[in-house]
């Protein structure tokens, strides 16, 4: 099986915050032995200590994979601890935002197989989506291994090139915050129509969660699902006429939102 080499040669997790913890939980639940995992983290949580993985101990010289999950601002201090593993068979997988493959190659070695990924926060409940792409030294087996590991926290899609990563950041990377704000706005609007605040928030959260689940499971497209629930001259149509207004509705607003986030991602790139 694809994870056998990981269990045999070991996995190093560099950083175990929310994203790292979510992935580690998925791997352990999937049967990866704790003894095959090394975690480097300056502030290990009580949960991490309870897992049985090896924490801040001497690392294997050539693990199957190193997953880099530290914050970008900590990258300069963290990468030297794994630099000796570069230019070999060890696969490096980064879920750190904004750090280019070229930056990793500069520290880890130009011949290192490196996969760059962009997950999002629903990974914390195994409902995330991660976009990934590898450098020229990653094999098909490397990409399959990375996808298997990342699937512990949700869906995985593969990009055609690194230039797509900024748009992914603007859409799915930052996207959960847009949806959370939409929930806030829907709840506030319900409250403005006379609903108690708690009830309005419950209705808003459940509506967004249910609609998302339906969109994921239905054979119809979201456009068709929208049509299905819209009766001619009914309440939904009245609401959609405001929401879908070409000048002031959601289409131009979301386009501007994703563009702003994507543009900022380009500005913050380290390459």
Structure in a nutshell:
With 271 residues, the chain is of the alpha/beta class. The chain contains twelve helices and eight strands.
Strand % is 5-15%
Q: Give the C-alpha Rg.
A: 21 Å
Number of strands: 8
CATH architecture of the largest domain: 3-Layer(aba) Sandwich
Query: How many distinct helices?
Result: 12
In words, what does this structure look like?
- The protein has 271 residues and is of the alpha/beta class.
- The chain has 12 helices and 8 strands.
- The protein has helices spanning 4-9, 18-29, 46-50, 75-78, 101-108, 140-150, 165-173, 175-192, 197-217, 222-228, 235-243, 250-268; strands at 11-14, 37-40, 54-55, 65-68, 91-94, 114-118, 128-134, 154-158.
- It has an 8-stranded mixed sheet with strand order 3-2-1-4-5-6-7-8, with helices on both faces.
- Helix 8 packs across helix 9 (197-217).
- The mean pLDDT is 94.
